[in-house]
Write a structure and sequence with these properties.
Elements (H helix, E strand, L loop, with lengths): L4 E4 L11 H10 L3 E6 L4 H6 L5 E5 L5 H8 L6 H13 L4 E8 L8 H11 L3 E6 L19 H14 L4 E7 L4 E6 H4 E2 L2 E2 L2 E2 L1 H10 L9 E2 L36
Parallel strand pairs: 1-2, 2-3, 3-4, 4-5
Antiparallel strand pairs: 5-7, 6-7, 8-9, 10-11
Helix pairs in contact: 5-6
């Protein structure tokens, strides 16, 4: 088995690794794509980062108070670092993403505040996902009541799109992941067709060439089953899906 993709984001802050650019170079030489998520607290590191296949910043809240409550940041100037990180993202030419994690009762009502952050980083995409409950801990106050339904994530995403007045549209969804993707309309919607997918071979060829390139140079057409509102809900019909039968009752109340 030959790996083709690498997510540099599972634990901790990947851009703090002093050899991160060397690691990225080695991955790209092996034609392994890179997906890196940063917590938006190290703007200088973002500026120094070499081209990444897709670069995310975690935008966990739209206001200073909410960000402090949700992320429990280490730095006193966490908000300034956050804004500077979004500003640094704007200068990146490859695919850039704001990753929003909705926490019901904490940040799911901050439509206006989130929208104000759009113009700072001008990301290609905005990925909106419901928080995943991982159990109770001494440092986490989250419960299952804080986990939004997919309908909640859809409503939030549509409201954000409406707020942007057409700059961003809801492009894709993956129901099983409780995830929605907004994309820049003028950049990734051509003649009514979305191009939110990645041409990985083209990306690696561009990196190897040493030439300057941007996210449009390695975009690919979005398959019909991944487009927002498709009957498949983001599931690849070419793959086999296994469904788990649940026999216990849920105490959660679904929205709507």
């Amino acid at each position: 088995m030959t790996p083709r993709h690498c997510a540099l984001s599972l634990v901790g802050e990947p851009i703090m690794y002093p050899e991160i650019n060397t690691l990225v170079d080695e991955l790209h030489k092996r034609r392994i794509s890179t997906f890196l998520v940063t917590n938006a607290q190290f703007p200088d590191k973002i500026k120094l980062l070499k081209p990444i296949t897709q670069l995310y910043v975690s935008v966990d809240a739209g206001t200073k108070d909410s960000l402090k409550a949700i992320d429990r940041p280490l730095f006193g100037d966490f908000w300034e670092r956050f804004i500077d990180s979004l500003t640094a993202l704007k200068e990146k030419h490859q695919r850039t993403v704001y990753r929003l994690t909705l926490v019901k009762g904490w940040n799911a009502e901050e439509i206006d505040a989130y929208y104000k952050l759009f113009s700072i980083g001008e990301p290609d995409f905005i990925e909106i996902k419901g928080v995943t409950y991982c159990g109770s801990t001494a440092t986490s106050k989250l419960t299952m009541e804080n986990v939004p339904w997919h309908a909640d994530v859809k409503a939030f995403s549509e409201a954000l799109s409406l707020k942007s007045q057409g700059e961003y549209e809801v492009a894709c969804e993956h129901v099983h992941s409780c995830c929605i993707l907004l994309a820049k309309t003028k950049k990734f919607k051509i003649d009514g067709q979305w191009y939110t997918w990645i041409d990985y071979d083209k990306f690696h060829d561009l990196v190897a060439s040493g030439s300057t390139f941007d996210s449009k140079d390695y975009m690919a057409a979005t398959p019909s089953w991944a487009v927002y509102g498709a009957e498949e809900g983001g599931f690849d019909p070419g793959q086999l899906r296994y469904r788990k039968e649940r026999h216990h009752k849920s105490n959660r109340k679904e929205s709507g």
